[in-house]
Design a protein that fits this description.
By secondary structure, the protein is an alpha+beta fold. The protein has 18 helices and 25 strands. The radius of gyration is 37 Å and the shape is elongated.
Length: 720
Amino acid sequence: MDSTPSSSPSSPFDLVSRALGRYIPRGGPAAATGSDNAQGDRTTRRRVPDNPAADRHDQILGVVNLDGELRIARSNLDAAVFAGLDAVAGSPFADLLPPRDVPTVTRRLRQVLEIGEAHVARIQRLRRGDGSELVVSMSILPAAAPQEGLTVSLIAMARRLHLYAAETAIGTSLDIGETAQSLAESLLAWGDVAAVDLDFAVWTGEGVTERAPGRIRLRRAALVPDRGWPEGYVTPGDDLPSDASRLLAQAVRRDDAPQAIVIPDREAIERLLGSPRVIRALVPGDRSASVACIPLVLDGAPPVVLGVAEVWRRADSPFRDSELFDLQELVARTAHHVDLARQHQREHTQVLALQRRLLPRTGGHTLEIASVYQPATPDSAGVGGDWVNSFPLPDGRTALVVGDVVGHGLGAAATMGQLSMEARALLSAGLAPDEVLEHLDETVTLLDDAESGLAAGYSALGSTCCIALYDPVSHHVALSSAGHLPPVLVLPNGRAGPLAVSPHPGLGAEFALREPFDVYTFGAPPGSLLALYTDGLVEDPALSIDEGIGRLADVLSAVHPWDALQQAARHVVSTLAPVRQRDDVTLLLVRMIGYRKGDTATWRLPARDDAPARARAHVSALLRQWHTRGDTQDDVSLLVSELVTNAVRFAAGPITIRLIRAGHGLLCEVGDTGNGRPRLSRGGLLDDGGRGLRIVHRLTTRWGVRWTDTGKVVWAEVAR
């Protein structure tokens, strides 16, 4: 390397170069590393003892002079710690940097050139010619006049400073992969290759318990540096061979206690690993001759091993006692970060499983549905409380529900699941959307009283919900909303826009703010497209919420009737939220199909004594037209006769009869203006009361009641 004196004895380069002479051991780098060739017992315990010269050499200073084009003019990197750095005069300084750091460091260098303000003590990695990296503290100084260019001073990282910096970096993420990667990058300061292998239970977020060493299963979580590896070598995401997992587990559990070990040379490594396949899987290359294995241990009685960290070195750089102590200290300090990431992963997995469970499975034959759920970014507090659901109701309608529970994590997930299941039960029982929201409002209030919700440190107040009921016969939708963003409707002619839903407070609002929930009814002819979503899809810091909803309407208007709906839903999400947000993104797309006109029939009869006979005549004629089996015709005629008779006896006003041919069954509906609920009772042998409902119960696969603004509808399903 060029170390020619400068013509300006007061230049920063010369000042640093003269200072180097006081620290470089006499005899040069070879003398400082003479202990590398010392012979000793080749065991897994052999390390190079500490000596003062080596400690000073570990913290030695280097200097590089750059010209105005950021090319190396001169350098003084004679210390052994800088061996492998190809600081050739005339080459770009960027050649010494990892590719990912080139833009940032280049910007800093040019900033010092232009402004003249030094950058002092920035932690930086330098790339050696063999691909390994060296961690240094780098200062960028403007050259002294009349010279031009820069002086870059490099200090091999002091271990204590590196320990502090590493621990600070490792604890910044709750993602287990990023945590392992940060640990591996920090360990690289002690070697040429660093890897972190975690117990499979840790990787998946499961509970970790003490287990026999031979039964551990390791998966590679992180590996640095990032480069091409030999065939058969284990890279991140791969499971270690069972033999390798067993050997590592046994190695770090000497005398039934987790402890760090060093395998000092290639011969000992090959003797311990034995199998060529295991050697290919674990040894990063021919030049890697020694390795330090440090277990990640959770303190306890007994202690639990989360995994193993491995640091690999070349044969000419054995591990010293102080280095092994530093490695153990770093891993011990950061093991709890790995366990925190594991716990977060477990919670994230549980909530995501619940989230996926609530997604609709199928749309039925009266509509087509597609849903997309995109969790928030990994560094957020966890999966949120967004949910969508779609399910057929017993009376032939379909319920569409979307909700957003405040917060993230298990608290939000528990509330989400409770509200979703309660909404489904109430809708299946025949309640209208506004009535269901009234019950959910009360539920949220009860969940957040002082003894349960607030005491647990979680509040669901302000959660939102929107419920829509689609009638495939009338092609109408009844909708109620509690603080949720308005759905977007696309008509068959392509016109799209949000529904005019008046704002309403979220669930659990204070009593003074509560208003009755409104019900909006709108037409949705066959071919219409309805989008229900959560705010994560349309929120953008650069746009108002109305503009975000407008963008959603524009994208939906481009969905053609022949497009695959699931593909269209993914396209909508990727267009509006191309990168993951800090809030969950949820979308439910519904394409209305409905029943064909020839599959339904409706009659309105006065509530008179002849109504049952007239109803039987209408139904029998239609069933013959539909070519229904004779026994089914008899059952349906009797069923309708009993329901109409019951309506005439206990209700007033006109009676509405509706017959629907649906799939493999027939759905019969009889509506009246009464508000009494028919109940099936266990009557005596000679008891005349209730015989009609017992006949209905035996003839049908299921039956029930739903309430309307003018009365009730009794529905019953008969298999064809």
